[in-house]
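Prompt: Have a read of the protein record below and flag anything odd:
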Amino acid sequence: MNLSWEGEEEDARAARRAAEELDELRARRQGEAIALGNEFAEIRVARVETRNGSRLLIESPKSGQWVALCPLELEALTWQNTATFSAMIGNPFGPLVTVEEEG
């Protein structure tokens, strides 16, 4: 009985690459990380230096999800309204715009 799935090896490689990228970002952290949380979520944020400049590394210890955002991406958050954030929260772990919608 085969307990693997189609694409399992590719998924494993992608997971290893993401873990390596996160380790590299953490190694380039400037100062201490800041933890924020409430009854719904907890995150850690830290400034990291990359070859393309400073990024804000945002990690969710509970889910293991993370993102490193550049200043423009962070500024774009200020352009949003509460409906955008409600849509993001209503579709956890999924994109607001799918690849098909991108064009």
In short: Residues 20 and 98 are 26 Å apart (CA to CA). Residues 31-102 form one domain. The two ends are 41 Å apart (CA to CA).
